[in-house]
Amino acid sequence: MVLLFIVATLLPPPRDTQEITWLNDLYHSPLFYVLSALFSLNLIICSLNRLPAAIRQFNAPCFPPPPGIFENPETTHFILKEKGMTAGEAIIEKYASVQFSSLKKTKWEKGFLFCRERGKFSLFGVYIVHLSVLIIFAGALIGSVFGLEGSMNLREGETSSLIRLDKGRGVHQLPFSVRCDNFLVEFYDTGAPKTYRSDLSFFKNGALMQTAALLVNHPFTFEGVRFYQSSYGAADETKAVIAYTGAGKESGEITVNIGDTFALPARKAKATVLRVEENIMQLGPAVKLDIEAGKKNIQFWVFQNIEEINHANPGLFAEVPLFNPGLFSPLVFSLKRLESHYFTGLRVVRDPGVPFVLSGGILILAGLIIIFFTAHERIWLRLEKQPEGIKISVAGRASRNQAVMQRRLERLCQNLSKGLAT
Amino acid sequence: MTHTLILSYVTFIYFISFVFYLFKMILQKDIWGRLASFAAWLGFLAHTLAFILRWKASHDMGLGHAPLTNLYESLIFFAWSIAFLYLAVEWRIKNKSLGVFVVPVAFLLMAYASIAPGMNTRIEPLIPALQSNWLTTHVLTCFMGYAAFTVAFGCALLYLWKDKTQSKTAPAKSAFSQKLPALTMLDALIYQSAALGFVFLAIGIITGSVWAHYAWGSYWSWDPKETWSLITWLVYAILLHARYVRGWRGKRLAVLAIIGFACVLFTYLGVNFLPSLHSYI
Ligand code: HEM
Fold first, then answer.
1. Which of chain A's termini has less CB crowding within 10 Å, N or C?
2. pLDDT (tens digit, 9 = 90+) per residue, B211-220?
3. Distance in angstroms (rounded) separating the CA atoms of residues A89 and A196
4. Is A133's C-beta closer than 6 angstroms to any atom of ligand 1?
5. What is the pLDDT of residues A151-172, one digit of tens each?
6. Of A151, A179, A185, which Cα lies nearest the Cα of A340?
């Protein structure tokens, strides 16, 4: 019966996951839940089936020792002639409790029996592992039933409390709202992104509750809902901040978009922004203006780094009037900076199953370490009176790695004979 | 780029070591075995040095991340873990015949790292999602696990081979078979390395989930690499159960270890041909 269960359960786990690899969303399909449930049920039944035996083993008294253990060839005997019983007892108590702390002792028809035991708990490692598998399953189930997964895009300055749920499941309203105060992206020289960061403020009933800086790999939790920095994008066209000087006077900063037109104080002219470029001809940011004065139109570029460009190419304006920001005299234009506005892409997740899965994960590790790196070990010593003197017999059992136990027994015997010799 | 140069020597040394192990197997002279071990140790030490140099180079470039962030670096580390575990096992069992099966795996990985087309060997800055200590731990433990499975695989091959030659030449002693570790020892080694790998892979999967939790907002997303690492893990769970519960020994266990290793390879390399979050490794 138990065997049948085991055979049955050894097969399904790899198969169900494997098949479903190809059919993507089946991980949330009823079939998957049913298989998982069957698997868990099996695990529970098998573990319960075996548990009583493990408990019996756990509670098994040290005495009497398993029958025949001292007749087993694995047992190491040795005899010593001239010592008396009390000396034997003293030596055993001295050496046998070195590696194992508690030494139990009992009387026996021909002398004394001693027993040392450790690693009893190792018997339950297997159950800890199986239990944690169940806990992880439970956590995953809780997460998929009560959890929430979605995303939200916020422009800089925008406030929202709506998230778009994954897989087109609609929109969800959070009981609070989030504002993106600022978004920042930095790049490496190679052009790959280095960091991106959103500064968020959380509001409840109109009151500011908390602010936080959100970075990739550093999520932030507000009222049980975790926010992740997941993506970003340009929210709208890049703005240019320009200024001009005329007759020694500088205008204020003017912020413009492509297509904007503004009036100029000379010759009743109007300027129109034709292009805004972040990096044109490897010369950095620039805008192209069209100036209409009377019937005439003049077009030219205004570079942000005009001084360096001019410095590197003396006589440039004479050769390429198109690059001269003072082409429309008497005004000289300058580009102060470009301003781009981003939106930040946030992942929004609430998963009440996480603590379960996490504790399951920790438990499984603890269980595995208990299983593989500890063992239930018992050592028995028998002291008996013989015509020649005393005889000490040593035997041991380990739930795993009997070879290590054997080595330990040998070492113990050496110590005992050394002790008896002195 | 000293480390790249050293690594190409290391590849060569592993190959030499493999050839010596082969000579040892065929010619039965201890001297070849000693040379082979010497070469393996030399390769391993140089390999370690190169790993450290590469790390240092990344620091000097102001990036300072462990060299575990792309396919090239992971292949190098995989080979390193195999060499490390193999030498540990060789030292423990005092028998050199396993090398013929394990060292060439390290060599092949190194060779693949250096000749595969389109392999990016540069040290590159990390994109934000990869800037995480969990990730380093994750890669480290996964590859220690894979290396342990590789040793189990080597033992399994040796087991099957010895089993075959032994039954063929039955009582007459085949000289080489005599020198091989006892079948029971190999069987125990398969089990122990599989168990070790199982624990490491468990840690690897868990740390990977923690990382995914922080980086992607979901501890498990059923991407092919995750799924396959889970399958691999379950195959080894089956191996452990088969031995512990059903008492499978020897041949059947060896076959399971080989199946498990095939899963490891698929998880590691095959999955790269499917779309995945793990595309950078
Ligand atoms: C339904 C499925 C499963 C069944 C029926 C099952 C059953 C068993 C049984 C009967 C034992 C032996 C316990 C003993 O005799 O004391 C065992 C051991 C063990 N189980 Fe499971 N198990 C299942 C799933 C799993 C899973 C999913 C894992 C973890 C990944 C796992 C990990 C272990 C480990 C590590 C051992 C100890 C093996 C050893 O000592 O070599 N089991 N299992």
1. C
2. 888 887 788 8
3. 73
4. yes
5. 888 888 888 888 888 777 788 8
6. A185
Give pLDDT tens digits for B82-103: 999 999 988 888 888 888 888 9
CA atoms within 13 A on the CB side of B2: 13
Region class of A234: left (phi > 0), else alpha (psi between -120 and 50), else beta: beta
Query: Are B220 and A140 a contacting pair at CB < 8 A?
Result: yes
User: A187 CB near a chain B CB, below 8 Å?
Assistant: no
Task: Choose among A10, A27, A361: nearest Cβ to B238.
Answer: A10
For chain B, the DSSP string reads -HHHHHHHHHHHHHHHHHHHHHHHHHH--HHHHHHHHHHHHHHHHHHHHHHHHHHHHHHHTT----S-SSHHHHHHHHHHHHHHHHHHHHHHHT--TTHHHHHHHHHHHHHHHHHSTT---S--PPPGGG--HHHHHHHHHHHHHHHHHHHHHHHHHHHHHHHHHHHHT-SSPPHHHHHSPPHHHHHHHHHHHHHHHHHHHHHHHHHHHHHHHHHTS-S----HHHHHHHHHHHHHHHHHHHHHTS---HHHHHHHHHHHHHHHHHHHTGGGGS--TTTT-
Give the Cα separation of B186 and B257 in Å (integer). Answer: 12
For A280, the token pair is 């044109």
Q: Residue A204: enclosing H or E segment and its boundaries?
A: strand A193-204
**B261 Cβ contact partners less than 8 Å away, ≥ 6 residues apart:** B149, B150, B152, B153, B156
* Burial classification of residue A280, based on how many CB atoms lie within 10 Å of its CB (0-12 exposed, 13-18 middle, 19 or more buried): middle
A259, burial (CB in 10 Å: exposed 0-12, middle 13-18, buried 19+): exposed
Looking at beta carbons, which residues of chain A come within 8 Å of B127? 192-194
Provide CB contacts within 8 A for A302, sequence distance 6+.
A242, A286, A287, A288, A289, A325, A333, A334, A335
Six-digit token pair at A170? 């609609």
Other Cβ atoms within 10 Å of A348 Cβ, number? 23
8 A C-beta contact, residue A50 and residue A27: no
Contact A369 B199 (CB under 8 A): yes
CB neighbour burial string for A57-93, b if at least 16 within 10 angstroms, e if fewer: eeeeeeeebeeebbeeeebbeeebeeeeeeebbebbe
Does the beta carbon of A6 lie inside 6 Å of ligand 1? yes
* A382 φ/ψ angles, rounded to the nearest 5 degrees: -125, 125
The percentage of residues in chain B with a pLDDT greater than 70, rounded to a whole number, is: 88
**B125/chain A closest Cα distance in angstroms:** 7
Residue B263 has pLDDT above 80, yes or no: yes
**C-alpha–C-alpha distance, residues B21 and B37, integer Å:** 8
Residue type at position B23: F
| Segments of chain A with pLDDT less than 70 | 1-30, 73-82, 96-101, 190-191, 235-236, 422
Q: Rounded to an integer, what distance in angstroms lies between the CA atom of residue B37 and that of residue B50? A: 20
Interface membership of A10 toward B (CB under 8 Å): yes
Q: What is the largest CA-CA distance in chain B?
A: 65
From A219, A358, A369, residue closest to B217, measured CB to CB: A219
- Secondary structure tally for chain A: helices H, strands E: 9, 21
- Over the stretch B38-70, which tens digit does the pLDDT of each residue have? 999 999 999 999 888 888 887 777 666 777 777
Please give the pLDDT value at position A224: 86
Contact A164, A152 (CB under 8 A): yes
pLDDT of residue B64: 64
Q: Which range is most confident: A2-11, B71-80, B148-157, B267-276?
A: B148-157
With b for 16 or more beta-carbon neighbours within 10 A and e for fewer, the B191-217 pattern comes to bbbbbbbbbbbbbbbbbbbbbbbbbbb
Closest CA to A75 of A400, A385, A409, A420: A409
